[in-house]
Amino acid sequence: MGKLPERLRENVRILGDLLGETLLEHEGPALFRKVEEIRALAKSLNKGTASDASQLVDLLSQLEDKDILPIVRAFNQFLNLANIADLEYFSSADAQDNDGLDTLLTKLSSDVGKDQLYDLMSTLRIDLVLTAHPTEVTRRTLIRKYEKIARTLSDLTRGDLLTYESNKLQGRLHRLVEEVWNTNEIRDERPTAVDEAKWGFAVIENSLWHAVPDFIRHFDRLSRRRLGQALPLDLQPFKFYSWMGGDRDGNPNVTHKVTEEVIMLGRWKAADLYLQDLYELGGDLSMHEASDELLANLPDGASPTPYRERLHALRKRLEVTLDWTERTLAGEKLPEPENAIHHRDDLLKPLLDIHSSLIESGFEHIANGPISDTLRRIYAFGISLAPLDIRQDSDRHVQVLDELTNYLEMGSYREWDEEKRQAFLLEQLNSKRPLLPANWPVSDDSAEVLATCKAIARQPQETLSHYVISMARQASDVLSVALLLKESGVTWDMPIVPLFETLSDLENGASVMNTLWQMHWYQRYTQGHQTVMIGYSDSAKDAGKFSATWAQYKCQEKLVDLANQYEINLVLFHGRGGTVGRGGGPVEKAMASQPPGSVAGRIRVTEQGEMIRYKFGLPRVAFRSLSNYACATIKATVTPNPAPKEQWRALIEDMSDASLEGYRSIVRGHKHFVPYFRSLTPEQELNKLALGSRPAKRKATGGVESLRAIPWVFAWTQVRLNLPGWLGAHQALQHALKEQPDLLQEMLTEWPFFSSFIDLLEMVLGKADSAICGHYERQLVDEEYRDLGEFLRGDLVALAQLIKEIKNQPALLEDDPMLQQSINVRKPYIDPLNYLQAELLKRERSAGEISPELEQALKVTMAGISAGMRNTG
What we know:
- Helix 5 crosses helix 9 (193-227).
- The chain is mostly helical and 873 residues long.
- Strands 2-1-8-7-6-5-4-3 form an 8-stranded parallel sheet.
- The model has no long low-confidence stretch (mean pLDDT 93).
- 64% of the residues lie in helices and 6% in strands.
């Protein structure tokens, strides 16, 4: 069994001790002793020194109601503090044995040649799309305190601290833990879409604003050292985009007004951050020697401080932009000032002039300093920090056109077949006549779709990115968006992205794109560039993780082959969630398992919810994440894994069929599944958490099928069954072991796609706990449904045994002892939360309601289990 690194263990101990002291001071010795007794008993269970959980359950059942809330808060906060210690350690020098990027570049430069590698590094493009999917349980005020704790832990490791400095930092740590304890960890109100966008901008301001130029500087230094060439100044390996304020799929709270407000907020915050940069640069650039070109652009043709003079005019424009955006956000109706910042070039031109003058004047080190950082920020973040994607469900566009064709007495667009729809749309797209009447009776939903398109037309092109169509099923879904944008006055060819997210949509995706790429009109519109989005969450919910993963692979393969035939520059956009059940997992494994040719130096990925904080919440953490992305993308481009052998394809196809049957026979076919799911899990109670602005269901009515993938995964994670990440995999592996066991072993050792899937499956199983799930069943599930629960838990245990057999290891996670130890450290704190959650759910459901204090305790158990499992949805 691997041990946690000494520094990490020490930080966990320090924070745990401080939490204990705070508990003792604020809640008293009696409660402190109860917490310690529960913790000790849970630890003995985890170590196997206690026989079964009944003793712990009995102890928890004897708690007085008044003690339950502070006790669950204590266990929740320990788990959060342990996560902070984790985050700090893995972004520290202690955890970095070597620079993985440097090692990779050194190896590849000799394998493929320096010139080829330099070309790739110069054009590398990784688009990270920050989304507001409601998986971040932790309040933002606590997130800020946790970040301060992480920074303080890091500062305490400095070797040059004087005694008073060390004491000061220790005092700050104690104060922060006390602040955390005395802060309500549960939101009282659901955040608005604008609140979510503000949080996204805060991540950029506090972390990415520093990490991005730091990473690019490091990237450039490695290129100089290993390849002998500096990378271009306009290098853009990372660009950031956002769905916060743009994603209206199933979220009526995201309106065109919200979208415009978020864009304005982005421009305001960008102006503010660039102004701060310029004030710093003004202090740095005090030199008097400058190029003739720079001097010629000054008002008087000369100045004792020419660089400051050149900055002054840009600073004035930013101040105008800041004032205008601030007043507009306050509700004033103001035209955009002529001298506001309208385009990225408005920022770049004067700063590039200064940079060129510094180089020409012999100030190369100064030119490569903070001014280069500012230029790199402009390339990465533009005039609004994170241009918005607009996302809408395909049926909303169908509804608009159906209302329109009915009003114009052309028939029902909804009832037309695909051929007739395409003919109509292409005719209108090629026509110079307007189609939309000035005034016509349109429903509120359709009016909002049109208002969004008109808002796109009003906003600067640089503040927007792609239009993503959820549940895209046919070519007309893409053409309909193009027509609505045209009719709304959008004068630029906004990239339209079909999102293929169910099993059938993934299977038909290449056929849809083939139809589009044959159209002359669409060829002119796209100019040889196309982004296609692959949905991981809904496909896994639709077909099970195993079948969905294989369908995603095949869809990407077909799209890449087809794009090559049409000479299309294809970008695959991966809609991954945080959990394995929603496409999450380590970046390195995800990229290594992509089909050959599907990366090609360019990739687009969503980052969402709590994963944004885990990956980008602190500058050092963000730097490491950016480096991991760059490594994985370069490696997948230069040394892609070969295509699978035909024998592997045949076997995994049969395995996928077996998995699909196993998954759907339960989720869709078992008559007790829905009542079992609803009674076992806190699915109905999750709404108490006020996670995000988006409703849990796409439609107000409907059962599990209408439930979004996030609460679906969240609910199963709470009861530790983790069903979305593994159901159906047992049947797939059973089939392979029975039919072709040797071929299965060959796939495991020679096919990175398959071995990565098995590794992720093992991680899911390692975090599951069938005994805890069994306790929920006994407490909450009617007798008539328990046979299903027994089957599912048996399936989980049998699958774990199969994984151990296939990998020839005595226990799960044998080759990842750090993860196993991390799970073991958290288990004594998660288990009591699970037992108490089951008890509180039982009380609330039997009585109809519980006291406000106990309801708060129930919500805290949800947050604590999420923190302990390291993900929600």
